[in-house]
Amino acid sequence: MQFDDDANLDTSEVQDVRGSRVPGGRATVGGGLAGLIALLLALFFGIGPDQLGLSSGDTSPAPASSSLAQVQQTCRTGRDANTRDDCRIVAVVNSVQDYWSQEFRRRGRTYTAAPTVLFGGRVATACGTATSEVGPFYCPGDRKVYLDLGFFDELRTKFGASGGSFAQAYVVAHEYGHHVQDLLGVLGRSQQGPAGANSNSVRTELQADCYAGVWARHATTTPDESTGRPLITSLDSADVRDGLDAAAAVGDDRIQERFQGRVTPETWTHGSALQRQQWFQQGFRTGDPARCNTFR
Predict the structure, then answer these.
(1) Residue 233 lies in a domain
(2) Which of 107, 106, 104, 284 is nearest to 183 (CA)?
(3) Which domain range does residue 114 map to?
(4) d(Cα 294, Cα 203) in Å, to the nearest integer?
(5) 106, β-bridge pairs
(6) What is the band of 22 on the pLDDT scale with cuts at 50, 70, 90?
């Protein structure tokens, strides 16, 4: 995956609070990949909810720090996105939101942008105080995506994904899929009913995978709203394979087999490795969000 070297990045869509000091508190489990990883830790490593670092006791915004301007100072162009992980996230966020803004407009709707918050260690959100252990997640309370860049190393070392720049992009696009669901009023369905292979939780996650695939299909043709040129200039089959590999690595069956030695579909919350790949491919093949109706 390559970005236009001369494109300007919009760093206003990313809040960099790495290095901020955030108070702790009692914990609750959040959504997105956070719920999956929190559940994994709780079930397979004996870590209780009060140790996961998602707190309902402190929901104040993270304080500003000297690192707040880090991406604003260093992530200026697509050339920076081609060389730095944090700048790559800025560029992916720009591209994903450009696509959804234009798609919503095309369908007579209004897209509300959601910032991505880069943090390290711990961060305060409207959904509670989260630590890095819960992985990337979307918080509907403040409509922000939260991401510790260290998760991408864990995606390779802990979950066995091959890695790559597009694997990172897939994770970001998946979380923005939850933001789209929130704007469309369907995200709340994930909390309805029991867990299991056919649960609303699984259907919600698979739809977010499909939405990530839809963005990927249009990534090299969606014009940047400031330049009129696509921010992403190259996305090849190897990139897509990295995305599919990342999707499979966080499938419920793959994680359960890896960490508990058996697969229990009745406890699934995100879908199998094959399902996650299939729905990403569905979005990528059709390029049509209307073909992502996993609730049908």
Answers:
(1) yes
(2) 104
(3) 2-15+77-121+141-290
(4) 5
(5) none
(6) low
